[in-house]
Amino acid sequence: MNMEFIESPIKYVGGKYKLLNQIIPLFPEDINRFVDLFCGSGVVGANMMGRAKEVICIDKDVNIIQLLYHIAKYKAFFLEQVERVIANYGLSNSYRFGLDKYKQVTGYGGAGKALSAYNKEAYKVVRKDFNFHNATSLFYVLNLYGYTGAGRYNSRSKHNISVGNSDLNIKVVKRYRKYCEYINKSKSPASYVAVISGNITYTMMILFMQTLHTYKQQQATIITGQKKTLSRYLLNY
Ligand SMILES: C[S@@+](CC[C@H](N)C(=O)[O-])C[C@H]1O[C@@H](n2cnc3c(N)ncnc32)[C@H](O)[C@@H]1O
Questions:
Q1: Is residue 16 in contact with ligand 1, taking CB distance under 6 Å?
Q2: Which of 46, 108, 186, 207 could form a disulfide with 114 if both were Cys (CB 3.0 to 4.6 A apart)?
């Protein structure tokens, strides 16, 4: 099947973008509510937006959920904020300034080596600050500049991914803008939900889907996965 898919603006190991041509055709054409459970980069849910009347993205990683929500809600403004963060911390920005500047400063001829050497110390400061106050813009910077993208924390729930060999570049910006345009055009509202402090079970998911009809659109909601709290949360709707 020849279908075109939208990429997630979030770098994510285990992201399903490359498998969408196998995944998406498996779903029926006429769907009321599509739940992207364990959504990660949100790429599956995003690509169901034109197809399902409503999409709900769920993950236990509250930072991912906040990030998906911020991108969907604030679009270009969020990227501007991220660029300000990049400038304030003194990280590279090859989208604005090209790569040669960083190659010259570090003495490395290869783009990857130059970027990781250039960003190494500033990246550590971003990570330290993120682990202190969990700002979403810092999380996105860690995602773009970190080694493996999102979703890895140590046993104390601290972000511990080391610096990678990438930065804000033209490809990232184009992907981000394309995603935002797509979300703008999409008629299906999306909601982003983080289930924290526990794991969701299938029974809870069925309850979740059955009781969610009046779910408020376009919001990031943080709920706990403990059965009692989740049920109480659901029954309020
Ligand atoms: C492999 S990733 C999903 C990839 C995603 N489909 C994509 O294309 O980007 C798995 C995700 O499941 C989430 N996850 C794992 N266990 C979970 C649970 N019990 N409840 C909610 N989310 C969970 C993780 O935080 C992670 O983001």
A1: yes
A2: 108
| Listed residues 153, 175, 197: the one ending a domain | 175
Q: What is the extent of the structural domain holding 95?
A: 75-175
Which residue, of 156, 175, 194, is where some domain finishes?
175
**DSSP per-residue letters across 134-186:** --HHHHHHHHHHBSSBS--B-TTS-B-PPB-S--S-HHHHHHHHHHHHHHHH-
Say whether both 24 and 110 belong to one domain: no
Q: Which of 17, 37, 38 to mutate to test the pocket of ligand 1 (most atoms within 8 A of CB)?
A: 38
Domain for residue 236, yes or no?
yes
Where residue 155 sits, what CATH number does that domain have?
1.10.1020.10
Tens of pLDDT along the chain (237 residues) come to 568 999 999 999 889 999 999 999 999 988 888 888 889 999 999 999 988 888 888 887 888 988 998 999 899 999 999 999 999 999 999 999 999 999 999 999 999 999 999 999 999 999 999 999 889 999 999 999 999 876 678 888 899 999 999 999 999 999 999 999 999 998 777 777 766 555 555 555 655 555 444 344 334 455 444 444 554 554 443
Rounded to whole angstroms, how far apart are CA atoms 14 and 101? 32
Query: In the chain, how many domains are there?
Result: 3
Same domain, 102 and 162: yes
Residues 18 and 82 in one domain: no
Q: Whose CA is nearest to atom 5 of ligand 1?
A: 40
CA-CA-CA-CA dihedral for 68, 13, 11, 57, to nearest 10: -10
